[in-house]
Amino acid sequence: MLWSFIVGLVVGWIANMVIQGGRYGLIVNLLVGLVGALCGGWIVSLFGSVSIFVHLLASIIGAVLLLWLVTLLMRREQNSNKKGESQM
């Protein structure tokens, strides 16, 4: 369990370095890393037994994609809020 949190934190940190626009902090990085690791691990498990390197790479890719999606949604929400404020 502790190992999953450590790996999730590292994967989230790597994803944050790849997606420069994120910068959401430790908690969000940990959550994104954990969810990305779970998604990536689940996807590669569909292909059978794989090495730990492939599993880690899939976790990083999953975390990067998830952080990119969160960043995109947050920017869209911020832009819609700014448009609503300017119309008032």
Account of the 3D structure:
The protein is mainly alpha-helical. It has helices at residues 2-18, 26-45, 52-87. The longest helix is centred in the C-terminal third of the chain and has 36 residues, at 52-87. The termini are far apart.
Number of strands: 0
Overall geometry: elongated
Given as residue ranges, the uncertain stretches (5+ residues, pLDDT < 50) are none
Distance between the termini: 49 Å
Fraction of residues in β-strands:
under 5%
Rg over C-alpha atoms, rounded to the nearest angstrom: 15 Å
Fraction of residues in helix: over 70%
Query: Can you write the helix and strand succession as a string?
Result: HHH
The major beta sheet can be summarized as:
none
Helical/strand content category:
mainly alpha
Structure annotation, total helices: 3
- The averaged pLDDT comes out at 77
Keywords:
single chain, 88 residues, mainly alpha, 3 helices, 83% helix, 0% strand
Lay out the secondary structure.
Elements (H helix, E strand, L loop, with lengths): L1 H17 L7 H20 L6 H36 L1
Please sum up the structure shown.
The protein is mainly α. It is 83% helix and 0% strand.
